[in-house]
Structures are given as structure tokens and as C-alpha cells.
Amino acid sequence: RLEQAGGGSVQAGGSTRLSCVVSSDIVNWTCMAWFRQAPGKEREGVASFERDGTTTYAEAVQGRFTISQDIANDTLYLQMTSLKPEDTAMYYCAANPGPFCWGAGTLGKYNYWGQGTQVTVSS
Q: Which long-range contacts does 8-11 make (Cβ < 8 Å, 24+ apart)?
């Protein structure tokens, strides 16, 4: 199970952080990621974190968002800065056993999902 927290309403240019606690029964993940889905749009990858520490970002968030993991607390984070109205979406954390973490066709590989948390950025 993945339990999300954080998000909410933020002014453009502001920051917020999402967290995702990974339950102990999810032990075979190689990839963890954040996805987002805006109304009327498809779910898209935001950033991924591989067990070896490799991170990948969508071009739209590169340089503004940071994905990280706190191993001691089994928590995945997404630090979001310089937020824009177009970042408004429901954000989901997800895990998959690998080996493919990012790119075309990997969405379907993620078999554990958080409940989602809304981020709304106002201008």
C-alpha cells in the first residue's frame, strides 16, 4: 500500500511537498514514481526514482521538481518549486518491480498506486 500526503492549494511561484509512505509488504520494487493527471488529460509521468538512486524527470518539471527517498522512513517525496498553473493536477505515487521505470509503455508496469492528492496552483 502507498499512503500519500501533502499537496493542496498553492500560489504560482510557490512550493509544496508531496510524500508517499511505502508499506512493508511492498518489498520488490525497483522503480518508484510520481504521476499526475489533469482533468480531461491522460496520466503522465512526472519523475521516477530507481533503487540504485537514478532519477528521471519529465521535461516540463525538470529543474523545478525533485524526487527523493528517505530510506529510514520508507518514504518517497516530491519537492515541487516554482509552481505554475499548468502543474495543477491529481498527483499519484506508484511502484513497480522493474526493470523499466520510465518511458513509453511503463505506465502499465506500475502495479501499486497511492490514493492520489490534489495540487492546485492559482495565478
A: 8/118, 8/119, 8/120, 9/120, 9/121, 9/122, 10/83, 10/119, 10/120, 10/121, 10/122, 11/83, 11/121, 11/122
Output the CA torsion sign for 104, 49, 13, 16.
positive
Encode pLDDT of 71-111 as tens digits. Answer: 888 899 999 999 999 999 999 999 998 899 998 888 989 99
| Residue 64 amino acid letter | R
Cα–Cα distance measured from residue 67 to residue 46, given in angstroms and rounded to the nearest whole number: 9
Q: Indicate the residue type of 1.
A: R
CA–CA distances in Å: residue 26 to residues 21, 32, 110: 11, 11, 12
String of DSSP letters for 57-73: E-TTTTTTEEEEEETTT
47/8 Cα distance (integer angstroms): 19
Q: Are 119 and 88 within 8 A, CB to CB?
A: yes
Residues 81 and 76: their CA atoms lie apart, in Å, by 17
Angle at the Cα of 72 from the Cα atoms of 116 and 24, rounded to 5 degrees: 60
